[in-house]
Write a structure and sequence with these properties.
Distance between the termini: 45 Å
Family: Belongs to the cation diffusion facilitator (CDF) transporter (TC 2.A.4) family.
Strand content: 5-15%
Number of helices: 8
Number of strands: 4
Pfam families: Cation_efflux (PF01545), ZT_dimer (PF16916)
Structural class: alpha+beta
Strand order of the largest sheet: 3-2-1-4
CATH class of the largest domain: Mainly Alpha
Radius of gyration: 25 Å
Shape: elongated
GO cellular component, one term: plasma membrane
Keywords: Cell membrane, Membrane, Transmembrane, Transmembrane helix, Transport
GO molecular function, one term: zinc efflux antiporter activity
Largest sheet: 4 strands, mixed
Length: 295
Amino acid sequence: MNRTTKIAVGSLLVGVVVLAVKLLAWRMTGSVALLSDALESIVNVATALAALAAVHYASRPADANHPYGHHKAELFSAVLEGVLIVVAALLILHEAWSAFFDPRQITAPLAGLLVNGAASVLNGFWCWVLLTQGRRLRSPALVADGKHLRTDVVSSAGVAIGVLVAVATGQPWLDPLMAVLVAINILWAGWGVMRHSVAGLMDEALPGEVLDEVRKVIAQEAAGAFQAHDLRTRQAGSATFVEFHLVVPGESTVNQAHEVCDRVEAALEKVLPGSVITIHVEPEDKAKRSGIMVH
């Protein structure tokens, strides 16, 4: 079991514990806002399961049917997570709508909030683990899960404030109002997760600053070549693909051209560890007006 899979298993275990604690807090208080917090945790468990399955499948090596690997499975998981977040938001809105017409008395608010706060602390710690490790391991599924948990932590803080204000003012309608605000926050987070994942499924190019670094490396390390053009990049889960045409002198031998390519690939590997780099060598008469000029 690789590190990414271990973290995904950890997410599932943390999600189950947090769900149980938040359901306890809701049962103690009867708060609709705390119920909305618990409903979001149900989504956390479902998305953790999806992330675990995706990470496991994405780690499989390339085969005859998938010669570029199975990396995009993580992106499908992230899209599913976005959809489930939207479903959770709709469930919360339904509960809040009912509570507006049938206000419920909040009982044992401080004890319930303390229990819910303990779950939020655990969520906050695991959110940090997912975001730091997910980015280091370049796992879209783990990063998406971390961003969702971050939204959950923010929502929980808002819920706590809303419940305290509702109890202090004696205005029970403030409780479902806070649940509505939680739902809107969740919807916004779900949209962000889906937008980023769909961009990966559509083979969106690497970010501009990364592309600038790739161009800089090629220009500096391709001594012996004239130019590089038709640079194309894409991200598929944890895998990065880079390809371009490299123009070399027509009289260059195969060994000389290969030496230049090896040098460029080694330099790009330092910038994009684990990337798949494809270089098409061309003679000088194939140079284009626009391209990356070699220093």
